[in-house]
Amino acid sequence: QVQLVESGGGLVQPGGSLRLSCAASGSISSIYAMGWYRQAPGKQRELVAALASGRINYADSVKGRFTISRDNAPNTMYLQMNSLKPEDTAVYYCCLTAATRTSGTSNYWGQGTQVTVSS
Questions:
Q1: Mean pLDDT, consecutive 10-residue segments, the chain of 119 residues?
Q2: Burial 65-84 (b: 16+ CB within 10 A, else e)
Q3: Angle at Cα 56 formed by Cα 32 and Cα 97, nearest 5°?
């Protein structure tokens, strides 16, 4: 079993910064992809940033403002968010595509962390 624990959300003024963290634990044998998604009220969940096979992709709306990164030991991913805008307000979820020592590859999700950008 894999558990993802997120932290770092909160209330910030427009133009401010936040750093989200997502710590993965469990019997992980291989990690294939890591990513951050967000879901605003009344909207579908959307991909914000993803890291897979050494390649990074960002949603057009966050390019140049957000940066995804990871530490291998421990298995933690980060989302540095700068120049935040009110439209960035959403619940942010981390997602891990990984295989464990006892099962095949699956997607695992964090519990979500609220990011609110408001003056």
A1: 94 98 93 96 96 94 97 88 98 96 92 97
A2: ebebeeeeeebbbbbebeeb
A3: 20
